[in-house]
Design a protein that fits this description.
The protein is built from twelve helices and six strands. By secondary structure, it is of the alpha/beta class. The chain folds into two domains: 70 residues, Orthogonal Bundle (434 Repressor (Amino-terminal Domain)), CATH 1.10.260.40; 142 residues, Endonuclease, Chain A (2-Layer Sandwich). Helix 1 runs antiparallel to helix 5, helix 4 runs antiparallel to helix 5 and helix 7 runs antiparallel to helix 8.
């Protein structure tokens, strides 16, 4: 079949669920639309679950078991697929991020993942493990994906990356003095790249700061735009320009209000030297 995505069941519980669903559907000679009709959903939904773009909900897994006569097989596999450190919507976002022509980031409290050193990323992730928020296996999943995302920035041509960091990102200590010093050095090095722009949104920006939550905006090769934002429980990918355009406007306003790259780097270097 043309353009059929190859699935690796060992890559993640989600791909294992999708591969099993596809295999049993193929054995019965059903199309995605035909299985969707039996399950009470669209063929597009079936495709998204089979390829790992959407996680299987409990209702979806139960319907799959009923339609395919598999007992509670998919309900059990669905629980494993949902027990992941990645928020809903994030895997689909990453698939676009690694191909984006431009990436615009705004972050609060911590350095954005794409700019993190391995030691800083490990400290953040292990903190979540100690709190019981994720398992060690899920921590490994996060760190592995982060390494893949960072490696994707080295593609040719390189994407243009704009990063606006709230001042809290550079002042919040993570992992101890050594880890934090190396992370600040990493940010300064990032700012020196020809395909990056780094700015700090200082505390005294106050109510003029455009965002109260982290946000990422992608410009794709076809000139379309995607926005991604997270709450504590869910990630949301938005393609509708009626909603994306106001975020782009707000981001440009934030860049105008934030410190210049020269002033931002000077602030980071002062902090690196221990100056207030």
């Amino acid at each position: 079949m043309v353009n059929r995505k190859e699935l690796d069941p060992d890559k993640s519980p989600g791909e294992r669920f999708g591969q099993r669903l596809r295999t049993l559907r193929d054995e019965r000679g059903w199309t995605q639309d035909e299985l969707g009709e039996r399950m009470g959903c669209s063929g597009t939904h079936i495709s998204a679950v089979e390829t790992g773009r959407r996680p299987p909900t409990p209702r979806f897994a139960h319907s799959a078991d009923r339609a395919l006569g598999t007992g509670d097989l998919f309900e059990r596999q669905g629980r494993a697929a949902r027990h992941t450190a990645l928020l809903e919507g994030f895997p689909e976002f990453v698939a676009h991020e690694v191909r984006a022509a431009e990436i615009r980031l705004f972050e609060l409290g911590i350095i954005p993942g794409l700019l993190q050193t391995p030691e800083y990323a490990a400290a953040i992730t292990m903190g979540a493990v100690r709190r019981g928020a994720i398992t060690e296996h899920q921590a490994e999943e996060r760190l592995s994906l982060l390494a893949e995302r960072q490696a994707s920035l080295e593609r040719t041509p390189a994407p243009m990356v704009y990063a606006v960091l709230d001042e809290s990102c550079i002042r919040r200590p993570v992992g101890g003095p050594g880890v934090m010093a190396a992370q600040l050095d990493r940010i300064v090095a990032f700012a020196e790249l020809p395909s990056t722009v780094l700015q700090v949104a200082p505390y005294d920006l106050g109510e003029r700061r455009a965002f109260d939550l982290p946000v990422t905006l992608l410009a794709l090769a076809d000139r379309s735009h995607i926005a991604y934002a997270e709450s504590a429980q869910q990630g949301r990918l938005e393609r509708d320009m009626r909603f994306v355009q106001p975020l782009l406007t707000a981001y440009h306003q934030l860049q105008a209000e934030a410190l210049s790259q020269v002033a931002s780097v000077a602030m980071i270097e002062q902090l690196r030297k221990g100056s207030p």
